[in-house]
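User: I've been trying to design a sequence by hand for this structure and keep getting stuck. Would you show me what you'd pick, starting by listing the structure so we're on the same page?

Assistant: Good idea, let's start from the same input. This is the structure you sent:
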């Protein structure tokens, strides 16, 4: 190939030029266009060579000059092997060689057909040796056009000078035409392959090739003229040729070092850039969240290494996941057979340095491994990090020189492998960090951010449903057995959900024992059945070590609504599924979200956010329900009950807003408000000469506040109320939720002289052992038993038992929910101490309570006067 051999290479790395790598369809289209282009080049080459040979330069051979053809062919072969490879950013490679020297001499010593045949034989033989089998026809056509155009230009120059002998200007012009023709053909191939190359780059490349060609042609021409004119001048020509060769080799080494540095940088950047692109890609599957590089990225890296080493094939065997098998990526010639490589002698290499194997020098195991790869030689280097095998890089059969891979190739591959191992290790670390960012460390399932990432894409394209699953015993197990046992239960629940829904369903642990799943492709009629089946499996007992934990699960789900554009947002669906879970109660453990649920929780949200403002504006008040002594019918005290009149919602039921306030962590503020208002009322009664106690309800959160007793002492001191006129009512469940925390606080309150009462007794734990340990003074019978004891003998027996139990422990017994005379009479007959209920009075505001007390005092005074008059008469 005179001057430059234009050998287009579609596998050249596009990343070197900053262009996008073509897809498989585009690559196939490029290949078809290049085949057409090859046919055109070959056809024109054959026709032009035939026309020049027949019509213009007919062959006139001489038997004594038979040796010129083989010598020229050998000279062309030698010049090709001393060539310098140049990689162009557009994906085309050229070889700068010394072929201009034998070509310029050929103009003087051989006819057109001999030079053409010698050059064609040398060029095709070089391609065969280099195993460039896919471009032989194109290069054959290029060889024909190079020599034909060279002799045509030389002939035109001869004709212009009016001489029939070959002159040095004609030979020089013809010699420079050959590399110019080769360059133009290669630039046309760039256009055919749709690779980008700037015009400035093409012009600079053409200029440099012409300069190199001119130097080569001048050396060859000068040597021939000196030898032809001076019989003893050939040693001088040989010396000049050797000096020029040394200069070219030095330039070749410098150029190779520069190209090697660029290749190292390219490979490192490709791995880093592919990692950034993988991180930036939206994940559509669970395994996408690891951020791994896809096969095309590694194929590009393998191609870059292959081109830099001028290898026939490069094989990357990478372990992309710590526990996964090795992934094989091949660039260049495909591997024989099925393309699979086992753990053979070329893979089981100690250390991390490059090994160079030749089939003529290898042992039996290595020879068998090379034969399995259909390779004569191989460079093999393991990729290691901290003694961990990350992969193996193999380069098979160098194309550029007959001598095979050299020391520069070994050094380059070793340095490149070191960079690649570091980059690969960094990618694995980034993938681990990315995995941890999107997965729950306890269960290995997705976490909330990971679930958002995976679910976002399916929600855009098709109908889907988001399931929210809650286990209702998580906190109980945590408190009773510790978090280790609770974690085991969560892991078991995650496995049950995965088994029930299958491995392809996105599944996440949101927090605690709450899970979310995305169902795609299920008809709306089947979603409820899937949720029911899932709840049933999750509600089965959990064997944890040697224990069996009973559990219950609630499932809420939400589907996109056609009329709501926001319903395809994953956060909106998660929120709605959460609302549906919170709406599960009363035995209905599976609920679908309906818009009315959103209004309920929006109302609850408004109540919580407006609570402090309501306190400041006086929307909250305290009502009082009187309690009387059954034997004496005297008013002993009142129970303080909070009321809220909302400007938008009107009168709010305490059962609605108190749990919301408690869940928001504001129950301490509410308790403080009720306590202050109640003590203020007691102080007024004391100033009026009345001794009436007040009972305030406590929350489980109050009993967890170690500062609560100090706050109570401060309130009693501010209002000047003795502790004996203050009663705190607490539920059994509130005490038993965490007795280790509640008991010390209750003991401290009891020591202050405050009366403690167990409310709703009989509906909770009703543990006699705990009741004996609690420092309480009263028990309040739950109103459900009092209301039913007139018609239900069972309720009557429960009430009687509680009265007897309370008295046996020295406690005052209070019955709430007294609404009928018969209930009052029965309680009085049992010996119950105090009664409270609608029969006595409903909860009253302060002004109405004052009127009620005055009326009751007047009635009592009237009855007392009637009794005195009766005795006197």
């Amino acid at each position: 190939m005179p001057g430059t051999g234009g050998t287009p290479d579609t596998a050249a790395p596009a990343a070197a030029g900053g262009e996008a790598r073509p897809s498989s369809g585009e690559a196939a289209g490029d290949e078809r266009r290049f085949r057409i282009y090859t046919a055109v080049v070959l056809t024109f080459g054959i026709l032009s060579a035939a026309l020049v040979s027949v019509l213009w330069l007919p062959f006139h051979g001489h038997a004594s000059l038979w040796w010129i053809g083989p010598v020229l062919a050998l000279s062309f072969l030698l010049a090709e092997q001393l060539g310098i490879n140049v990689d162009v950013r557009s994906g085309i490679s050229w070889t700068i060689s010394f072929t201009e020297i034998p070509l310029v001499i050929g103009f003087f010593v051989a006819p057109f057909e001999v030079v053409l045949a010698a050059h064609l034989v040398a060029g095709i033989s070089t391609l065969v040796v280099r195993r460039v089998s896919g471009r032989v026809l194109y290069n054959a056509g290029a060889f024909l056009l190079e020599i034909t155009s060279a002799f045509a230009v030389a002939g035109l120059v001869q004709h212009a000078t009016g001489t029939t002998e070959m002159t040095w200007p004609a030979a020089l012009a013809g010699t420079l035409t050959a590399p110019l023709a080769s360059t133009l053909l290669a630039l046309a191939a760039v256009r055919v392959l749709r690779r980008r190359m700037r015009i400035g780059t093409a012009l600079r490349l053409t200029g440099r090739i012409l300069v190199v060609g001119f130097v080569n042609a001048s050396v060859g021409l000068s040597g021939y003229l000196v030898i032809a004119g001076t019989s003893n001048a050939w040693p001088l020509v040989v010396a000049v040729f050797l000096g020029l060769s040394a200069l070219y080799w030095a330039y070749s080494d410098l150029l190779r070092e520069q190209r090697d540095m660029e290749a190292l940088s390219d490979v490192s950047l490709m791995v880093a850039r592919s990692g950034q692109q993988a991180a930036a890609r939206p994940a559509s599957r669970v395994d996408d969240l690891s951020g791994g590089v896809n096969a095309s990225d590694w194929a590009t890296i393998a191609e870059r290494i292959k081109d830099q080493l001028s290898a026939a094939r490069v094989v990357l065997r990478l372990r992309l996941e710590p526990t996964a098998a090795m992934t094989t990526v091949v660039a260049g010639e495909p591997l024989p057979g099925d393309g699979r490589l086992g753990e053979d002698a070329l893979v089981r290499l100690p250390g991390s340095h490059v090994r160079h194997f030749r089939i003529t020098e290898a042992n039996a195991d290595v020879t068998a491994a090379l034969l399995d790869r259909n390779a004569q030689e191989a460079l093999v280097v393991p990729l290691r990090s901290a003694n961990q095998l990350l992969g193996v890089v193999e380069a098979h059969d160098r194309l550029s020189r007959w001598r095979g891979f050299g020391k520069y190739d070994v050094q380059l591959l070793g340095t490149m492998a070191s960079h690649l191992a570091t980059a690969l290790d960094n990618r694995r670390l980034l993938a681990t960090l990315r995995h941890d960012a999107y997965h729950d460390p306890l269960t290995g399932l997705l976490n909330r951010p990971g679930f958002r990432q995976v679910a976002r894409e399916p929600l855009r394209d098709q109908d889907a449903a988001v399931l929210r699953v809650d286990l209702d015993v998580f906190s109980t197990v945590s408190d009773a057995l510790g978090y280790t046992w609770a974690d085991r239960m969560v892991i078991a629940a995650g496995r049950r959900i995965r088994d029930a829904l299958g491995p392809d369903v996105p599944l996440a642990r949101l927090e605690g024992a709450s899970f979310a799943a995305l169902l795609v492709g299920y008809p709306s009629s089947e979603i409820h059945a899937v949720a029911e089946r899932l709840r049933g499996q999750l509600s089965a007992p959990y064997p944890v070590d040697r224990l069996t934990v009973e559990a219950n699960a609630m499932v809420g789900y939400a589907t996109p609504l056609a009329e709501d554009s926001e319903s395809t947002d994953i956060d909106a669906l998660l929120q709605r599924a959460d609302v549906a879970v919170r709406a599960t109660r009363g035995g209905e453990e599976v609920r679908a979200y309906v818009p009315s649920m959103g209004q309920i929780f929006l109302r609850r949200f408004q109540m919580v956010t407006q609570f402090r403002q309501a306190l400041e504006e006086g929307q909250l008040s305290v009502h009082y329900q009187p309690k009387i002594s059954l034997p004496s019918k005297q008013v002993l005290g009142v129970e303080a009950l909070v009321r809220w009149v909302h400007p938008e919602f009107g009168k709010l039921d305490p059962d609605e807003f108190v749990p919301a306030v408690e869940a928001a962590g504001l129950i301490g503020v509410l308790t403080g408000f009720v306590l202050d208002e109640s003590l203020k009322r007691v102080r007024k009664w004391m100033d009026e000469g009345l001794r009436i106690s007040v009972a305030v309800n406590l929350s489980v959160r109050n009993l967890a506040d170690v500062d609560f007793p100090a706050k109570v002492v401060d309130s009693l001191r501010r209002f000047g109320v003795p502790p004996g006129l203050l009663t705190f009512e607490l539920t059994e469940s509130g005490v038993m939720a965490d007795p280790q925390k509640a008991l010390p606080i209750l003991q401290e309150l009891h020591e202050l002289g405050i009366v403690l009462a167990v409310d709703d007794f009989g509906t909770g734990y009703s543990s006699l052992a705990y009741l004996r340990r609690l420092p309480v003074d009263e028990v309040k019978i739950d109103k459900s038993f009092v209301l039913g004891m007139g018609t239900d003998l069972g309720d009557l027996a429960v009430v009687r038992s509680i009265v007897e139990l309370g008295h046996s422990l020295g406690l005052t017994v209070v019955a709430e929910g007294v609404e009928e005379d018969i209930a009052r009479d029965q309680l009085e007959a049992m010996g119950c101490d105090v009664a409270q209920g609608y029969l006595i009075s409903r909860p009253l505001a302060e002004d109405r309570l004052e009127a009620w007390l005055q009326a009751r005092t007047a009635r009592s005074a009237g009855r007392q006067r009637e009794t005195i008059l009766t005795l006197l008469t």
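That's my pick for every position. To get oriented when you compare it with your attempt: The chain has a mean pLDDT of 78. Residues 632 and 643 are 30 Å apart (CA to CA).
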